[in-house]
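#struct-pred
JK: can someone run the complex with calcium ion? inputs below
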Amino acid sequence: MQQRSLLLALGFALATTACEADKDTNADTGADSNDSGETGDGDGDGDGEPADTDEDGLTDEEEAELGTDPTKKDTDGDQYWDSWEVTEGTDPLDPESRIYTGYWPYNPNKDEMDPGDWNVIGKWNGTRFPRDQFLDQHGEWVDNYDFSEYPSETKPEGTYMIIDLSAVWCGPCHTVADWIAKGNNPGLEADYPTIRAKVHEGRVFWLTYLIEDGNYAPPSVTDSQEWAAQHPDAYVPVLADEEQHTPAAYGVGAIPHFFIVGPDMLLEYFPAANESGYETLSIIDAYDF
Ligand SMILES: [Ca+2]
Ligand SMILES: [Ca+2]
Ligand SMILES: [Ca+2]
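RT: done, structure tokens with the ligand placed:
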């Protein structure tokens, strides 16, 4: 619960920052700010635009009908803006009704992005990580492009992702997952001393893709659930790649394998054939997020 609260607090901080301090950041996160001032009186005098005082994408009038707060982007405090919940059919007045049970981020603009294509991929920097959906440990379909363009305080243009290809049969994969979740591995902690903080402070996303089950077969949602139960971490989505798209496109001989995807969903770093996947962790560790 404490970890969830931290993420919640981060969400609040972001919303507050965007709302009160810097209207420029709003453009990236879905609020369609018009030319009226923050304290617009709502009469639309001259511009004809209905007022959206909190710039959450719902007009004050719509919010009055819904019962949501026209001065708060996220009325129920569940991290998801009121307009996003309306779009996705969840209840903006109920914090238990959320777009993702796992509190994963959400990008309302993802449909405007190039979705890429699993049949046209590359393993070099600047190529696109395709859009897809995967079942997480809560049994929900997760759109991987919801992690795109997600602003953090230090990276307003978005948050980078570590893509972790793991398998149930893979002992070292469990070792890494357990270290991320529990911090119980002095060797890994010494090698990559800043990674866990970066993951748990929302400065980088860690996405675990299960690419095989315990018998080298395609994974299922049950594998996601059992993995997350063994290595519980509220910040890490465990995604069952049932279709095995990621290993087909990005697999190498050894796992765990790690690569970096930018907030634009373009590969930021993919280890060369002669490099260890762990090199990715060194780069994230050294990077000043
Ligand atoms: Ca509004
Ligand atoms: Ca609102
Ligand atoms: Ca809600």
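RT: quick notes.
The chain is about 30% helix and 10% strand.
Residues 2-21 form the longest helix (20 residues).
JK: thanks, will look after standup
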